[in-house]
């Protein structure tokens, strides 16, 4: 896309916005970065050093409406008045990923889903790096895609994509797409219509061609229904924990099998990541790697020595025989379901925060099977207390990470686990889920 002398406005000056500004400037666009909130000092400095114009705490609507193209941060909902005005003026709105794609010939592996997408992305990237590929990591993780397009020369990118990013992608093409699962999340952004959210996730298939690949979760009923409806024409490679798959992958009787070109098998016990959901993530990443003909030994070794992302079922320490696990990244019921499902010892569960309309009854079976005590970590814990009162004997409330860890240490015994998996956002007591996880880890290390 020719940018010389044209106006581009970038809304939101986070990692993706600043990266888009750097690429836009390099391509000759007149750039304005506009953020309704405060811009982080480090990002300000980067914009200043490159003499890129920016504004914070406001949007100069008149200037913005003179843009030839607008790049929108995934955090800004479509219903905001400014976005409505931009659309009414017929100005095209795209995501930073779409913009990066205009200037890149690199091939892409794109991963989306309600849960597991970060882990699957990191796993896939880990395998490709280990195989010696020239590969970048971007999207929801790593550095901005657009910035890497401007400054690096990667042959491949592994991209984690949220539904919000996919909503503003139109011409972008994934060479390999992965859909981990679909469960209700962010419905407030989709008019509380599940189908809108599902359609959003399936945008990952847009522009894929016959020779491209779609890797998906065969056990997910929503994905199954959509595939029957949509009849996708690219190469399909499903994965399953329930049935054998001729082209794709499956796990059966504690063994993982990937059937792409030749058969790869490995024991589930050799996987670095435990729990059924992580077996699914490992299958997805393994299938993608085998499609690229990465040697089976490299795939096996990589799936066995991977270290997971911080705040996602992260082992913190063993204190007097008690395991402390930080899963602060679990901000919805589904993520916590996966965490509880992978617990193998009696568990003291730390839960709570800002609730996004959670239905805790979905956890009843797992809680009665796995949980011996509950610690509520939030400013308003009534909903959690009501949900589990009479089912779990010990339910206590904590007002800080330190207090929650102290209770956990008191309530757990040797060979038991204290799990922080909040199922809620963190904004009542913490800055964000990272801050919550870090405070938890600090408190554990201070025991």
Can you walk me through this structure?
The protein is globular and about 65 Å long. It has 447 residues and is an alpha/beta fold. The N and C termini lie far apart (57 Å). A hairpin with a 2-residue loop joins strand 15 and strand 16. Helix 1 runs parallel beside helix 5. The protein has three domains: 88 residues, Rossmann fold, CATH 3.40.50; 208 residues, UDP-N-acetylmuramoyl-L-alanine:D-glutamate ligase; 132 residues, Protein-Tyrosine Phosphatase, Chain A (Alpha-Beta Complex). It has 17 helices and 20 strands. The mean pLDDT is 95. 35% of the residues lie in helices and 23% in strands.
Mean pLDDT rating: 95
Fraction of residues in helix: 25-40%
**What integer value in Å does the Rg equal?**
23 Å
Question: What's the CATH class label of the largest domain?
Answer: Alpha Beta
Strand order of the largest sheet: 7-8-6-9-10-11-12-13-14
Instruction: State the major sheet.
Output: 9 strands, mixed
For this structure, the CATH topology of the largest domain is UDP-N-acetylmuramoyl-L-alanine:D-glutamate ligase
Summed up, the helix count is 17
What is the CATH H-level superfamily of the largest domain? Mur-like, catalytic domain
Envelope shape: globular
Q: How many extended strands?
A: 20
Which consecutive residue ranges, at least 5 long each, have pLDDT under 50? none
Beta strand %: 15-25%
Structural class: alpha/beta
Number of domains: 3
């Amino acid at each position: 896309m020719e940018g010389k002398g044209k106006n581009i406005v970038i809304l939101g000056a986070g990692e993706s916005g600043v990266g888009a500004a750097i690429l836009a400037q390099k391509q000759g666009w007149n750039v304005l970065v506009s953020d309704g909130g405060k811009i982080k000092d480090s990002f300000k400095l980067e914009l200043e050093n490159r003499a890129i114009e920016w504004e914070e705490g406001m949007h100069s609507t008149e200037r913005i409406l003179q843009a030839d193209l607008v790049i929108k941060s995934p955090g800004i909902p479509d219903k905001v008045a400014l976005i409505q005005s931009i659309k009414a003026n017929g100005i095209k709105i795209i995501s930073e990923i779409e913009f990066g794609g205009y200037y890149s010939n690199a091939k892409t592996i794109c991963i989306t889903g309600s849960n597991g997408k970060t882990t699957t992305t990191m796993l896939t990237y880990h395998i490709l790096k280990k195989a010696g590929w020239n590969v970048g990591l971007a999207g929801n993780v790593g550095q901005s895609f657009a910035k890497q397009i401007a400054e690096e020369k990667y042959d491949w990118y592994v991209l984690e994509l949220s539904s919000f990013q996919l909503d503003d992608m139109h011409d972008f093409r994934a060479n390999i797409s992965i859909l981990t699962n679909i469960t209700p999340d962010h419905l407030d952004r989709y008019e509380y219509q599940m189908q809108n959210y599902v359609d959003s996730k399936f945008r990952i298939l847009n522009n894929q061609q016959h020779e491209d690949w779609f890797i998906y979760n065969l056990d997910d009923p929503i994905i199954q229904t959509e595939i029957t409806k949509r009849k996708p024409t690219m190469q399909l490679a499903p994965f399953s924990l329930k049935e054998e798959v001729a082209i794709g992958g499956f796990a059966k009787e504690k063994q993982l099998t990937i059937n792409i070109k030749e058969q790869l098998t490995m024991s589930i016990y050799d996987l670095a990541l435990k729990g059924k959901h992580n077996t699914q993530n490992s299958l997805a990443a393994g299938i993608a790697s085998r499609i690229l003909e990465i040697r089976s030994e490299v795939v096996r070794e990589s799936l066995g020595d991977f270290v997971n992302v911080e705040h996602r079922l992260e082992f913190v320490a063993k204190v007097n025989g008690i395991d402390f696990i930080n899963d602060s990244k679990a901000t919805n019921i589904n993520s916590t379901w996966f965490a509880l499902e992978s617990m193998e010892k009696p568990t003291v569960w730390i839960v709570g925060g800002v609730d996004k309309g959670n239905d805790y009854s979905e956890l009843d079976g797992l809680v009665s099977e796995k949980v011996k005590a509950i610690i509520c970590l939030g400013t308003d814990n009534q909903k959690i207390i009501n949900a589990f009162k009479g089912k779990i004997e010990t339910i206590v409330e904590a007002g800080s990470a330190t207090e929650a860890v102290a209770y956990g240490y008191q309530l757990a015994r040797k060979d038991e686990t204290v799990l922080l998996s909040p199922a809620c956002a963190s904004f009542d007591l913490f800055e964000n889920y990272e801050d919550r996880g870090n405070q938890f880890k600090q408190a554990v290390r201070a025991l």
